[in-house]
Specification:
heterodimer, A: about 350 residues, alpha/beta, Rossmann fold, Alpha-Beta Plaits, six-stranded mixed sheet, four-stranded antiparallel sheet, 11 helices, 13 strands, B: about 280 residues, mainly alpha, two-stranded antiparallel sheet, globular, disordered N terminus
């Protein structure tokens, strides 16, 4: 067999993730609470019936990820991100459509796939809470059936790059959140997977821990060509790690492209927050700015502006013409804002 | 930057059981490292074993013969049944905590590892504290064998290990059945406990005392009569009650196979429900 044919069979050439019309519905059962006027439940067989309704978590989603890409997968809570990841990894069965990960069907080839991908769920641990970190790594090496040299070499490499040397003998339950997250990522990378899927890897981390993690992931990708797919609520993750962004809205893809393109699509990229001397009506008429919201009877107002076409100073001057500004700050857009604006533009 | 060339498939080191040995070994080390807690657990499990035995003792303080068996024969039934149950409990008893595994995301982690999910679940814990209950059961069994004037024929020598091995398999299968049902049931532990602990209790009684429907259930449907009562009849060469003839004891492997066929079917349904219905 030629090398090309072998490569095709192994699914290593071509997309590493291929999703077509992927759909996932959940049946939600709810007890119907039929009550008598007296407040007592109706004593009939009807009472035992439950209302069924179908919720579509992922709705005919289609996208591909090529080997070596770093893709940010963003959207509001409940938009369908985790459901998609669970279908990519063989935990959930799609209701309709097709998924291939590393060229494999995640359901029928789950075990083969598990050797080729690494997954980190930020809120869940795959380490043994009562064992020292060192032992968790040793067990995972055995689970992936690494040879002793490979296990030792890879563990040492990850421990050094993620700066975990002092924590190796600490039981996992005593690690700080930042330390644990680094350990989780090392655990997912121990078997050198082609694809690393991260679900909220930086949630709850301090600035320094986030920075370290990002640097490590950039390095891992540069040296090994590992494909990254991550969900996040942190714009910094996207800016520093990803060269492509997928925005999901109510189970469907709302945007697929670069981060710069996302900014261009959405328009305003920065937010000026002004604290005013006295309650003021919504500042909707400031030139070059869009009013996002008000708090405290209009004492604090948020105005979005596009730094390409105007400046913070110009917007501030516009506000000062109307009322007295006591304090101000300029915010980088957070991911929720970007996503919300995409959602708004879709629903108009 | 990205290396687009296909990666050569990594050779696997060790054998298929390397992963399980690593996990079980670490579980044993972890329990031994919390010494005081481990000793308390051992003591608690000893009390449970002794209480169960006291119950049998009290009954035979008042009657001479129960269901055609005297106290010495009941020692055999009690010993075999408890030995098989506590061995199964040691090996796989933790899986009735399935809802916790689901809640903690441990089950999802199993899906992300290259071993069968059920095999990982069964080997993810190893409850050494059950050792003391195993000790109580083994003591009762040995006492029964000594006091019963057993004829050490080839049949007896074959039946004894068979009862322990396949009896353990039957109870382990019942634990898997119980766990599988918990995919469907919310707070279903009460119901599924009747499978496992109820089955264990039923198996420590001579099945001849049950009314016929129960006899049929424990003889054929949830065949716990095979774990202790039928082997005891075979060892002591006693006739069985109507519907449960003594020669049935030799079909022990078949009974275990039936329980496991049921267990694996239920497990399949359960995981389908988890992956399909959304757990």
């Amino acid at each position: 067999m030629s090398q090309h044919a072998t490569a095709l069979r192994d699914g290593a050439i071509g997309p590493i993730v291929e999703v077509h019309d992927l759909t996932r519905e959940f049946v939600v059962r709810r007890k119907s609470a039929r009550m008598r006027a007296s407040g007592r439940p109706v004593a009939s067989r009807r009472r035992l019936l439950r209302e069924r309704s179908t919720v579509t978590a992922v709705d005919a989603m289609t996208f591909t990820v090529r080997p070596g890409e770093a893709v940010g997968y963003i959207g509001a809570n409940g938009a369908g991100k985790s459901t998609t990841i669970k279908m990519l990894t063989g935990i959930l069965v799609p209701t309709a459509g097709s998924v291939r990960t590393c060229g494999l069907d995640p359901l029928t080839s789950r075990r083969e796939l598990a050797r080729r991908i690494g997954v980190v769920f930020g809120q869940r641990s795959q380490l043994w809470w009562d064992l020292p970190l060192r032992e968790s790594f040793a067990i995972l090496a055995a689970i992936h059936r690494l040879g002793p040299d490979e296990a030792r070499g890879r563990t040492a490499e990850l421990v050094e790059q993620l700066e975990m040397a002092e924590t190796l003998d600490t039981p996992v339950r005593q690690l700080s959140l930042g330390q644990r997250m680094r350990a989780e990522i090392a655990a997912a990378l121990l078997h050198s997977p082609e694809l690393l899927i991260l679900d909220e890897p930086t949630i709850g981390l301090d600035v320094l821990s986030k920075q370290r993690l990002r640097e490590f992931l950039i390095h891992e990708r540069a040296t090994r060509g590992t494909t990254l797919l991550l969900t996040t609520h942190d714009m910094g993750d996207i800016e520093r790690l990803c060269d492509r962004v997928l925005v999901v809205d109510r189970g469907a893809l709302a945007y697929d492209g670069t981060l710069a393109g996302l900014g261009a699509t959405v328009g305003a990229q920065r937010v000026l927050v002004v604290d005013l001397a006295e309650p003021t009506g919504d500042l909707t008429d400031i030139p070059g700015a869009v009013h996002l919201g008000s708090e405290g009877d209009g004492l604090r107002q948020r105005l979005a502006f596009d730094p390409e076409s105007t400046t913070a100073a110009a917007v501030l001057a516009g506000v000062s013409d109307v009322c007295e500004v006591r304090d101000l700050s300029v915010e980088e857009p957070d991911i929720e804002d970007v996503v919300r604006r995409i959602y708004q533009s879709r629903r108009r | 930057m990205a290396d687009l060339a296909p990666r050569t498939r990594r050779p696997l080191h060790g054998t298929w059981h390397t992963p399980y040995a690593a996990v079980i070994g670490s579980r044993i080390r972890a329990q031994r490292s919390y010494r005081a807690s481990f000793l308390l657990d051992l003591f608690g499990s000893l009390l449970v074993g002794l209480t169960e035995f006291a119950e049998v003792w009290v009954i035979f303080h008042n009657v001479q013969v129960l269901g055609g068996l005297d106290f010495n024969a009941i020692l055999l039934v009690f010993g075999l049944s408890n030995l098989a149950f506590s061995l199964a409990d040691l090996l796989v008893g933790h899986i009735d905590g399935l809802p916790t595994f689901v809640r903690m995301g441990t089950l999802d982690a199993f899906y992300l590892r290259p071993q069968p999910v059920l095999a990982q679940l069964m080997t993810c814990e190893f409850s050494l504290r059950r050792l003391s209950r195993i000790g109580v059961a083994a003591t009762a069994l040995v006492a029964g064998l000594v006091r019963c004037d057993v004829d050490w024929s080839l049949a007896t020598r074959a039946m004894l290990p068979m009862a322990i091995v396949f009896g353990t398999a039957i109870f382990a299968g019942l634990f898997v059945c119980a766990a599988s049902l918990q995919f469907f049931l919310i707070n279903g532990a009460e119901l599924t406990n009747s499978f496992t602990y109820g089955g264990s209790y039923a198996s420590s009684q001579p099945a001849s005392i049950f009314p016929t429907p129960l006899k049929m259930i424990f003889g054929y449907l949830v065949p716990v009569a095979f774990t202790a009562y039928l082997p005891t009849l075979a060892i002591l060469d006693l006739p069985g009650p109507a519907g449960l003839p003594t020669w049935l004891a030799w079909l022990l492997p078949l009974a275990a196979a039936w329980v496991w066929a049921l267990a694996l079917t239920l497990w399949r349904w359960g995981t389908r429900h988890y992956q399909g219905g959304g757990g």
